[in-house]
Amino acid sequence: MRKILLMIMLLITVSFAEEKIYVIERETSSVAVLQDCKFLKRIENLHNLNHAVIKFYENEGYLITRDGYLIKFDPIEDKMIKEIKVGKSSIGFVVTKDYIAVANYSNKSVVILDKDLNIIQTIITDSRNVGIKNYKDYLAFSLMDKDEIWILKKQGNVFKVEKIFKDVGQVPFDAMMEENLYIVGFFNSPHIGVLNLDTLEYKKIQLFTEYKEPVLKVPHFGMWAIGKDKIVIPAVGDKKLFVFDKNFKPIKTVSIYGLPVFTSISPDEKYLAITFSGNEFPYVQILNFETFDTEKILKFDGKVLHVRWGLDGKFLYISVNDSNKVIRIKRDSWDEDCSVDVIKPSGIFLFSK
Q1: Is 134 helix (H, G, I), strand (E, B) or coil?
Q2: DSSP-based three-state secondary structure for 99
Q3: Which helix (H) or strand (E) holds 74?
Q4: I need a surface site. Which of 141, 166, 193, 276 has the fewest CB within 10 A?
Q5: Sign of the dihedral defined by the CA atoms of residues 99, 100, 106, 109, in that order
Q6: Are 175 and 143 in contact (CB under 8 A)?
Q7: 10-residue stretch averages of pLDDT, the chain, 353 residues long
Q8: What does DSSP say about strands 271-276 and 30-35: parallel, antiparallel, or unpaired?
């Protein structure tokens, strides 16, 4: 009975949630705001938005720009609140109840700020930093130029180095979290790294690829698929996915349509949508998340730069950069439901009040 009541409450919450879509417009240095397949407004003058990332914490919105600006905005009124320059080139960040941590490429540092965007601490690493994640009192990130993983521990208002893992793999490029596990990918090593943040034990999990094609866009691990009983890892330079159980026992290797970049798993974990780079830029492949059989291959009239499922899982949003559209796909038929004109769209981010 309790499970039934929880399901009903979840359905009511999703049904009445005000889902808003935030889409990065690189060329205009703006973010387009969409709702119900309609254009609402544009938040402008947001600096260099190549590889820009938006995150939400409750009713707060945060954006990191490639040229090192951290921007706080109000996603209810869609107004900028404050901005601060935290580096010359920034790549990722985490937002928590108490702090924000930004990983910088240039300035080769990690910067800790409070929620009002005041800088508390700058940690110099002498490396480009990627894959920043938080867990309990820990902050984890990888050093691309040193092949290291750093673990910092929060002590009061500042962080101190708890442990440094060396020779973890060649050229770490991104990471994902599964509960207490920090999972990092490497550009030049045939394995992933798995760091248990409860025990601080590190192990390498072997991947098997037959060849390596030129890579235009490396997979973005932060968007890769972790389900209730499976973890999916994209290959780098190979048209494959590696499927593991939660103990990293291999389940299967899946051949896919192109070199993988982004994915989005449907809220009910029935489908996995994948984007590609190179000649397969205009395609999105839909896989059954249980069998990993192909449900559908969708083709668009230009490069697909991002995908994202809506909150209720009925629609899949796709940014088609060359045709200046964000297209909404119906899950029950895989047909286009509607589209919105957006200037050179790339990243898609969802917010519900």
Answers
A1: strand
A2: coil
A3: strand 69-74
A4: 166
A5: positive
A6: no
A7: 47 59 96 97 96 96 97 96 97 96 96 98 98 97 98 96 97 95 94 97 89 80 85 93 94 96 94 96 97 97 96 96 97 97 97 90
A8: unpaired
pTM of the predicted model as reported, rounded to 2 decimal places: 0.91
Burial (CB < 10 A; 0-12, 13-18, 19+), residue 150, is buried
Query: Rounded to the nearest 5 degrees, what angle is found at the Cα of 235, between the Cα atoms of 230 and 236?
Result: 150
Contacts of residue 41, Cβ cutoff 8 Å, sequence gap at least 6:
32, 33, 78
pLDDT of residue 252: 94
Return the HEC string of 31-62: EEEEECCEEEEEECCCCCCCCCEEEEECCEEE
**Cβ-contact 263, 275 below 8 angstroms:** yes
Give the SS3 label for residue 273.
strand
The CA-based angle 257-216-265, given to 5 degrees, is: 50
